[in-house]
Fold this sequence. Notes:
Elements: H1 6-12, H2 20-46, H3 52-79, H4 81-96, H5 109-135, H6 146-163, E1 168-174, H7 177-184, H8 186-203, E2 209-214, E3 217-222, H9 226-242, E4 244-246, E5 252-254, E6 257-263, H10 270-286, E7 292-294, H11 295-300
Parallel strand pairs: 6-7
Antiparallel strand pairs: 1-3, 1-6, 2-3, 4-5
Amino acid sequence: MAKTLRLYDLLHRLALARSYRAKVGIAVMCSVLVPLGAMEFYFILFSPLRGKALEHAIWVGCIAACTAALLAYWTLSKILRPLGETSRQLDRYLLDRTLPELPLHYKDELGLLMSNVSYLTQRLEEHVSQFRENAAFDHLTGVYNRRASESRLRDSIELARIRQNRLSFALLDVDYFKTMNDTYGHDFGDAVLRQLGEVLRQNVRNTDWVGRWGGDEFVIAVQGGETEAVAMVSRLCEVVRREPLLAPDGACRYLSLSVGVCEWSETMDAHDLYMKADEALYYAKRRGRDQVQIWSEAALA
């Protein structure tokens, strides 16, 4: 590679050849002026022409050489324009993720370069999108992970604020999960979480979303008021109660959930909404677990 770039490296060292166009211009001028200089040297020393005839020949040669140099530079600039356009579109992709729009029907070296750039950027964007999608989901349960849940909660609040919609937030906790984990092992605990994640994903509406906040805590953002949220979460709890889990000792275990619900108001940010749902959740636990409690009622208790 170093050997094939020697001329380019030499031109790059010149102070007047920092840009690619300047390099092309210098290369064209040298390619034309060196033969011109040799021709003029020949005319002066060996041509039989003298006086006005020699002067006329020299001027004609200079004009022809300059015209040829300008024409060659213009032609090369046009021919190499796809290279500059490819570079600009690649820069734009790196800056703002705009995919290059390049012609793909050329079959020469520049056409192959444009095709490769288009193909590689599209594949890179696919991998980046897939990575982002995978990074947003909890690998065990298939629902949003903590970071994605926090981001989605902020987005949901902002959307509710703009549209003046009602939004509720539910915090779910598996009753006696630690006891099951300690009794049957972490593999059974993982099975519990997987089944719960599956039940939640299959039974929430398309307008709502589910996330795993951490451990055995799950969250659900419900498009609607607290009454609507309580009704939906109560149905989810009933579905969870009916789903048996086979424990390692052969016994069938059934899950129950404690749930706290809080409806968002204009004075709440994401942290406030979570904390109030958490207060309602602990109120549900204090009252015996396996139930849904609303923050407005828990705050008055």
